[in-house]
Amino acid sequence: MIDNHTTSPPAGVNPSTPSIARVYDYLLGGRDNFAVDRQLAEQVLKVAPNARTTAQANRSFLVRATEAVVRAGIGQFIDLGIGIPTSPNVHEVAQRINPDARVAYVDNDPIVLVHARALLSRIRSDVITLKGGLRDPKEILDRPKLRAHIDFAQPTAFLLVAVLHLLTNEDRPERLMEAIRDRMAPGSYLILSHLWDDPDGVARAGAGEYAHHKASASVVPRTRGQIQLFFDGFELVEPGLVFLDQWRPTQSMINAGAVVDLAGVVVDRVEAVEVLIQQVIAQLLVAAMNFRLVVDAEEAE
Ligand SMILES: C[S@@+](CC[C@H](N)C(=O)[O-])C[C@H]1O[C@@H](n2cnc3c(N)ncnc32)[C@H](O)[C@@H]1O
């Protein structure tokens, strides 16, 4: 585990400001975080006790959704907001099914880039890592290095997993969606998860802790209606809006059936471009309550 007192941080890494990527790493049981990150994560867990299972379920969704789009024939991926590498990473999942799959990883956090370059892109030519911010989507999506690696004339999967809620309304997240849509060849996919503004205010309480601790980005839970606005021009595909663990669960997940705490959506663009949307619900639910809570989620604005 990195610690302020024992290890010098990599260049550009600020150990006194909590980083979204490092807090997430801590929640996932990783070791690449500082005391400030762990303190914030523990505060978040006090007000949103399901934050850890939510993070784990989010990773599990990322794996299942990536597998689904590779099986649908996608061979190139742009992972926007990747987090500190956590195995299996997108290229590992994709290449189990299609060994020729190519991946571009993008993030703006120096510690993510240090680890991603060391672990992912330095040792292989089918993976690149780019420093880039999602507030200026055209800059990153049109960067020559990205264009040399990913052919936008071919179907591509874009991943915005647990990252869109890190853009405030002032950051104009709809511009990012538009930039992605404009670059999608027919048959492309978007895999997305988003923190849900649950009626009990659990997600908002967690977001308040990030603000209080002056984390590297704001956390903005959104209602179902607000999230759906991002997907104008797309059409839902199966299984539609469901709790995250219900998004094409594996047999073992169905059999386990104990705790379900996230929800998901699958969307299909009218012009045959498919989108997978995942909505994160910040509540700890039991399987028996799923149906009622799905209905509640659908009734939420
Ligand atoms: C919660 S992590 C999610 C990681 C991964 N997508 C997953 O779901 O497991 C969010 C990541 O997005 C990155 N991020 C946040 N805001 C960003 C921005 N404006 N531009 C680029 N990356 C950003 C953070 O550095 C972090 O690595």
UniProtKB/TrEMBL annotation:
Domain of life: Bacteria
Keywords: Methyltransferase, Transferase
Record GO terms (molecular function): methyltransferase activity
A GO BP annotation: methylation
Xref: Pfam families: Methyltransf_19
Protein name: SAM-dependent methyltransferase
Organism encoding this protein: Nonomuraea diastatica
